[in-house]
Amino acid sequence: MSSILEQQIEYYRARAAEYDQWYLRQGRYDRGPDLNQRWFAQDREVLERLNAFEPGGSVLELACGTGIWTARLLPHARALVAVDTSPEVIAINRARLRSAKISYVEADVFSWTPELQFDTAFFGFWLSHVPPERFEAFWSLVRRALKPEGRFFFVDSRYEPTSTAKDQQLASRMATTLTRRLNDGREYQIYKIFYGAEALQHRLTQLGWDAEVNQTADYFLYGWGKPKRSGR
After folding, report:
1. Residue 220 contacts residue 144 (beta carbons within 8 Å)
2. Complete DSSP assignment for the chain
3. What is the pLDDT of residues 53-110, one digit of tens each?
4. All domains of the chain, ordered by start, with CATH?
């Protein structure tokens, strides 16, 4: 049996061609007009916050996926490095955006070492897939990747049963893993941690970040911040 991390990589590689159905509320993820409208309204809320944050300069996107959020970062960025372990999603991302401003890196985020420092680090729907025992190491990576005055922005999932496919059920809110199913019925175990805004902000503060974490009414958790200055 593959480890959960290995299954998680296999799952997102196998899911590449159907990944966007989740975010676009299509197929198994179509929850009807009312719930879909709530989803897209809250998506716009997060996008407005991202645009107000202005993720400019040199931008690092960790776990870039198929490019939904890469496309949203691109108008702000001078240059963008997009990292993902899946060559399948990188291919979709590259074909979608066809931008000379983007450099793609195929690498496991957990073992990748940035060669440069960036003005902005972004990760969408990735933090919830970081195993609990790797949480601090991941944030150390973010710190190493940022310039002294660099900033981060993230977006992720809240615990909401209607966010997933109609033929799937979420595990307990306190669970750290769950089963995910592809359209063809194949199933994989992955990490999925649902953070609360207040608790996550407190934890980031303890790790030395000036951070603000918020949430939309139902579906999304999002936040931004920067390293605390020395002596604070």
Report:
1. no
2. ---HHHHHHHHHHHTGGGHHHHHTT-GGG---HHHHHHHHHHHHHHHHHHHHH---EEEEEES-TTSHHHHHHTTTEEEEEEEES-HHHHHHHHHHH--TTEEEEE--TTT---SS-EEEEEEES-GGGS-GGGHHHHHHHHHHHEEEEEEEEEEEE---GGGS-TT-----TT-SEEEEE-TTS-EEEEE-----HHHHHHHHHHTTEEEEEEE-SSSEEEEEEEEPPTT-
3. 999 999 999 999 999 999 999 999 999 999 999 999 999 999 999 999 999 999 999 9
4. 4-226 (3.40.50.150)
Distances (CA, A) of 143 to 54, 84, 92, 123: 19, 18, 28, 13
With beta carbons less than 8 A apart as the criterion, state whether 207 and 142 touch: no
Q: Note the pLDDT tens digit of each residue in 150-200.
A: 999 999 999 999 999 999 989 888 899 999 999 999 999 999 999 999 999
The sheet with strand 209-215 has its strands ordered as 102-106, 77-84, 57-62, 118-124, 146-157, 220-227, 209-215
